[in-house]
Amino acid sequence: MSKNAEWLESYLVKACGFSGPVKQVVAIPGWRVVETALTNPRVVTGKGAGHAVLQAIDANGEARFSSTQLTRLVAAMEALCRDVEV
Q1: Boundaries of every domain in the chain
Q2: pTM beyond cutoff 0.70
C-alpha cells in the first residue's frame, strides 16, 4: 500500500471512527486507457474512476458499510476535497 493510501486510511479512522479497505486508483483525464488487467494501483480514464470505485465496492457482492457509515465516509471525503475559497 502506498503512503497516500495509508494516510487516507488513517484519516478516515480519525474522522469516521472506523476503518475500511483503501484501494489505489490513478485517474488520467483526457487519455484513452485500456485496462488489460486489474493492477494495483488501477489506472483508468477520468470518467472511469467512478466505475473503478463501484467495482471495488461490489467485489464481494455484499455491502461493506452501513448507510450511517457511508454517510460519514462521504462527509469526511468531501471535507478533504471541497476546498473552495471565495
Answers
A1: 1-20+66-80, 25-64
A2: no
